């Protein structure tokens, strides 16, 4: 079984112990909530570490994530890749978009418990976001996974 520390080291990422702990705790919170509501199809913590945390961090390449930049995670679902990336880069503002409010409420509550302060949730459909002046062409980077 891989740990978050091993994932971070395998990918060569600079993450302190606090970031590693937050990612591990977030993963555990997602799995616990997934047993109560349909947050993710993955119900096993170990499988989630690989398919959610590891996968989320594989998109990280420093040159695409400018210092103090803004990132949009489109169709965030259970918060992947947005939450692990927000934890990795606390200087960045990460906006998590989904059309399913209950998932966003979970993310917001989990982030508050873990002290992740650089996220905002936005409950809209992607096409609506594309028409809004506040969300159109205002991000340095956009991520989307299985949308």
Describe this protein's structure:
By secondary structure, the chain is an alpha/beta fold. Helix content is 45%, strand content 14%. The protein is built from six helices and four strands; from the N terminus they run H-H-H-E-H-E-H-E-H-E. The chain has helices spanning 4-10, 17-34, 45-58, 82-88, 101-114, 126-131, and strands at residues 70-74, 93-98, 119-123, 141-144. Strands 3-2-1-4 form a four-stranded parallel beta sheet, with helices on one face. It is globular. The model has no long low-confidence stretch (mean pLDDT 93).
Supply Rg.
14 Å
* Spatial separation of the terminal alpha carbons: 28 Å
Helix proportion range: 40-55%
Count of alpha and pi helical runs: 6
- Identify the overall geometry: globular
Largest sheet descriptor: 4 strands, parallel
Spatial order of the strands in the main sheet?
A: 3-2-1-4
> Which structural class matches the secondary elements?
alpha/beta
Average of the residue pLDDT scores: 93
**How many strands appear in the DSSP assignment?**
4
Q: What is the element string, with H for helices and E for strands?
A: HHHEHEHEHE
- Our estimate of the beta-strand percent is 5-15%
Low-confidence spans: none
Give a short summary of the structure.
Helix content is 45%, strand content 14%. By secondary structure, the protein is an alpha/beta fold.
